[in-house]
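Same chain as my last thread, 176 residues:
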Amino acid sequence: MTQAAVAFLRGVNLGARNKVPQRPLAERLTEATGAPVRHHLQSGNLVVASPTPRLAELIRKLIGDDTGLDIPVIVRTATELADVLDACPWPDDDPRRVHLSMWDDKHDAGDARAMAAADWSGDEIVLHGRNAWMRYATAFHQAKLGNHVIERRLGVVATARNADTIRTVARMAAEV
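reply #2:
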């Protein structure tokens, strides 16, 4: 039996930019896959009960067909998400200060080690495969470290969510 997966859309519904209504997208994805799809928030978190092998490409195409936008999509299976959640080095910290960045592109391990060892003025980063947990010293909006740094330093396309969102979608994926 195929396990559920979570698709994370990068940079959608931020103010007036990249509007991708989640309910219609979930409905279209259900039609395309034949599997139930739920969404969490309007920030691009789709839980697919029985995903297709090329789920990210399918979602990207559906978004493009419906909106004309080219939105990157990062997919994690329920098992992968549970594994990375278990690896969170700060499970009890304020979830607004703990974020997970995820990417699918290959990256240079040396660049990743250098990024992890850099001084981020109190912000911290711990890498876990194609994911990085980040903890901000004060607040996300004041941090030197962030998803944009990971993209620039590793040459990847990534998306990030706070720890509460990751816990919620992981629970949703486990319950499907």
